[in-house]
Structure formats: C-alpha cells, structure tokens
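note to self — DONT lose this again. spent like an hour looking for the file last time. sequence + predicted structure for the chain T wanted, 727 res
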Amino acid sequence: MPAPPQKNVGSPNRPMPKGRALDPVRVLRRYWKGVPIWGIVGAIIGTGSFFLFSRVYPLYSGDVMFEVRPGLGEATDIATTDTISDKMVERVAATQTYIIKERSILTKAMQERSIRETVWIDQFLDPATGAVLIDEAVDQLLEEIRPVIKRGTNLYGVSWSAHVPSDVPIILNAISDSYMDRIKELDDEGFRSNIELFKDQGRRLGFLLQDLNDDLQAFIQSKGITTLDDARFSAQMFETQQLTEQATMARQSLMSLKQTYLQTAAKLDGTMEPTMEDRLRAENDPVVMRQEQTLEALQANLRALRERLGTTHPQIKESEITVRATQDQIESKILLIIRRNLTAQLREVDTSINTITTTLERTESEIELKDAGLRDLAANQSVYEGMESKRKRLEMQLDENQRLTSSLTLMQLRVDASRVRRLTPALEPREKSFPKIEIMIPVGVVLCVGAFVGIIFLRELMDQKIRSASDVLIIPGARVAGVLPDVEEDPSGLENPELALVSSPESVFSESCRQAWAGVNRAMQKSAHQTLLVLSAAPEAGTTTAIGNFSIASQLSGMNTVVVDCNFRRPSVASMFDYDDADVGIADLLANGATLESVIHHSDSGVDVVSAGTPANRLFQRLGSEKMKSILAQLRAKYDLVLIDAPPSIVAGDAVLLANLVDAITLVVHSDRDERGLVARVLRELGESRAEVLGVMLNAAVGTVGGYFRKNYLAMVSYSEQDDDGE
C-alpha cells in the first residue's frame, strides 16, 4: 500500500495573541444572576449612604440670578431693544460669571458686616484676634462658587452650597451687591472715557475745518477761478468726444482692412484657398460664360451621338475629348480670372489702408490738443471740488460728534442703560441639595453593578481556560475539529457517554459525536489518511469517550475499524468494550510475545479492539520503534480506520513518539479546564511531527456559553423533545 501523504498543519513560530477576544453577551449570560444581586446590594448601600450623609454632611444650595439686557440703541429710546442673539447672550453671560469670581469682588463681599452672622465664616476666624481671615475665605469661595448659565434664556448667575441653610442667602447676596457695585463702576468709567474721547475728537475736527476754509480761499485767488461749471459738460469736451468716436471708427475700419489684406495676400500666395464668392465672381465673367455656353452645346451634341451611334463609336470618343478639353479651358480661365480679381482687390485694400491711416493720425493729433486744454481746465476744478467735499465731510463729522457726546451724557443718567441687572436675590433654601435619595440609590446601584461587571470582565480577560470554540480559534495554528456537549445538559439523561452511540443513539450527545466524526472523517478522506491518534493535553479530557464514539460512528458508516489502546499508564479502551485491559495486547505484540491476530478482540458493536497488553510488557519506549511502525502498517492493510488512544501529553511523552508514525492527530480539550497556553504548547509540539493535525475536539462544552454551538445545541434539544412528544 502506498505511503499516505505527509502534511503538517500549524504555525509553531507564530506569536501568541496579546489579548483575549471576549463575547460580552456570553460573559453576562454566565454571570447574569450576580447583576440583580449586586443591584440590590447597591440600592442598600445607596440608601445607607443617604442617611449617613444627611446626618454628617448635608448641603444646602442657593443661587442669585442676573439678566443680560439688550441695552439702549439711542439715548432717546423709550425702552431697551426687544431681542438679542443667543450667541451674544452666552458670550456676555460667560464673561460676567468670570467677573463675579474676581478676587476684588469677593474680597469686598467678605468685608460686609452681615458675613459675621454666618456659621460658615467661623472657620476663617483668627483664634488669637477673632478677626476674619479674608484671603482664606476668598480662596475657599473661589473653589466652591459655581457659575450658572440658563441656556435659551438671558439669565445667568452663581450658586453656592453650605451646611447651614441660613448662610446661603447672606453669602450670595453679599457677593451680588459687590458685583453690582463693580458693574456700576465699570459702566461709569466707560461713559466718562467715551465722553472725553468724543470731546477731544470734536476739538480736533474744529481746528481742521478752520484750516481747510483758509486754504480754499487762497486757492481760488491764486488760480483765478471765475466759474464753478463742470468741465465735463463744456463745448470743448463735446468736440473731444466726437473726435474720439471718429478715431475709434477709423481704427475698427483699419483693422478690418488689414485682415482683408492678409487674407487676399494669402490667397495669391496659395496658402489659402479662394472662397466660393471669389469663384462665383470669376464664373460670372463674360468670357467664362461664353465658354460655358460652348461647353453646353458640345455636351448636348455628345448626348445626341450616344443615343444615335452607341458608346463605342469613334466619333463619340472624339466628342468626349473635345468636351473635356473645353472643361479644362474653362477651369484654367476661372483660375486666371480669380487671380486677376484678387490682385485688383489687394491694390484697392492697400490704398484704403493708407488713406484711413493718414486720417487717423490727423484725428489723434487733434484729440491730443483738445485733451491738453481739458486737463488744465479740469485740474483746478478737481482740486476745488476735493477741498469743498472735504469741508462738507468735516462739518458732518463735527455735527455727529456733538450729537454723540450729548447722547452719551443723557444715556449715563438713565438707569436702564446697563447691560446687566439683578433679577432675583438669593433666598434661604428649604431642601437639601445633597444627599438626595433619588440620586444616591441609582448611583449605588450603578457603582456596585459596574464594579461587579468590571471584575468579571477582568477575570475573563485574565482567565486562560478554554470554554468555547472561539477560545480555541485564537490559539496560533489551531482549528476546531468538533464540539461535544456537556453530558449533564443532555435532556435524555445520558449517564455513560463512552459508547453513547450504542446505549443512547438518539441523544443530543450522540448526534454531536456523529457531527464531530463527520468533520474529522471528511478531513481524513480528503488526504487518504487511515491512522488517527487521539490524545489530550491534560488528564480527564475525555479522549477515551471520543475514541469510543468515533469508532462506533465509523463502523456504522461502513468502515472496518480497529481501536488500539496505547495509553500504557491508564488503559481503559478494552474495558469500555467489556474486555480486560490487562489482556494480551499491543504491548505484548511489541515485546514479540504475541501475534497480531491473537491480540485483536471482536466486540459486539462490530469494532475490533486491541488492548494495552499485560502490565509487565507496557514499556512506552517501544511505541516509537520500528516494530510499532510495522504493526501500524499491518493494521492499515487490514482495516479502513485505525484509532489510537494515547496518554495526555502533559504527563507522558508517548504521544510525541506516536505522532511520527500516524497519519493524523486530533487533540481533545476539556472545556473550562484546559488552558490555552498548554494547548498551544502541545499543538506546537505536534506540528513538528509528520502527522497532520486535524484540529481540536472541544469536549464537555456548556450550552450556555453562547455562540454558534449554543444555537446548534438548542436546535438539537428542541428536535429531540419533539421526537419524544411524538412518541
């Protein structure tokens, strides 16, 4: 029999992933009972915190509000303007809340006599003198005062909290009074500064206006201006405009004639074809017309000869030659006449160009003389008009300056000119702002549940155990060969899973075994494998269960199957098929103490079994010998499938010896027990062997872990229950 193909699967050099991919739904589903429990604990903690803080640390909050006013547009306005943009309100409110927290304003507020009546100020009294430590009190206020801006309104303000409710209005109203005094000072200072600025500008404008009047009188006298008529409407300007129009028309005509001259010259040079108009003019020449009449007579005679004599008669050929000769003469004559006409046209255009050029030069000279006179006339007029316009502007500016000065003086006297006013004073709060039961309980619930969820997710991130197929897939070079469910979740009440396909073939576990074997068998058939080594990374992973059910599934599918127990340390395959594990078996065959036929047991299920052998001959060093290789070759020739059970790789090196003798390997991993690091190490070791690693068989997977396996599991349970109901 030809040797099976050799194929290694795995990437032993691929680095381990740094993190673990978590399924949040799967994690929360596993620990969902803890969420309501810790929610109740959080509610209890929140309630207890409410009563504790209410006794030891209550807070009472209050605020004082101000209004941003649109202000006066004019000093004579009856009321302020109606509207102000939201952006402007937000900017003014943000600026004013910053001003309220100025140290100078808070310092002045702390100097009020009413402040000494508060309990809050007692912490800032000097023990020796009893004086208020104003700087320390202001520092405390800067940390505790919070700005308040009401979005969508013109309101803003500040809020403050204290342990004694009566302290709140005293402190806030003192700050409000100090702030309003500061606003009044700023407004008065602004008005005074603006009024003084306008007065200085008015004096400067008066001096400029007086100097300009003196300059204007001197200019009139020096230039001898006797009239103020506009030079643009004089007779000289009208004549200049007429000459300009004539010059423009002459330039246009000259440009058109030059273009015509160039086109005509190009036609004579042969660089440009004559136009249809040139040809028609030549064809209308009397000489050409007489020749065309002759041509028509010859053509008529030719047609008559063709009708009478036929097309091959000699007289017809002579007539055709005469017609063509006449046509050539006409064409030559037309070309000659075209050239004659173009030559005459070229001379005519050249004469016109010279005439118009002379006229244009004379007109431009006259325009230049007229312009010189107009410039002299308009120069003085322009200077005068500029000085007069400047005088009018200065007079208007002086009038506007006086009006604004009067308006500012009047506006300063009005109470509603300020952009800010106090809307409501601070009142003594009647309820505590902290703690509040409607906040403390939700906060306690959120903190406790959040801490619980955070801990379980941290635990999951640090946990290296394999629980689902997705945990297998993140191992380098690993793939899932199949998933076997936890026997305890089987609705059929399966007790012994080792030969479930025999004892309970309709169970969910049996169906999962059939599906898993179908995938493994498909991979083996694809590569023509016959020997399959089934081992685990750690003890109690379920290797014997997988081998027993795989052997039954393969036998039921028509394959001649043998199971060989190479687990010399804890053999159990023979006992699973109701044989003694100490009977003559593979160990005796390796020790040359038995023949192949004598160690094969034929079970009732149709699967042949080879036990581990007598304890005295169980030397695992012989598993990698040439004798073992020869035995496997004999089994390949005798059976379609050879299943080999091996001890866990973590406790014995037997699997490594067998890995180089078999065709394929399947690693059985116990869910929620084996760790990813161990499985990855075993896969790396197996990947260096000659056998193909078909994948990882996940055993005892819990259906509640989520993912595709949960969906398949629920579907099989539902289908099984429907069958039971039907029965």
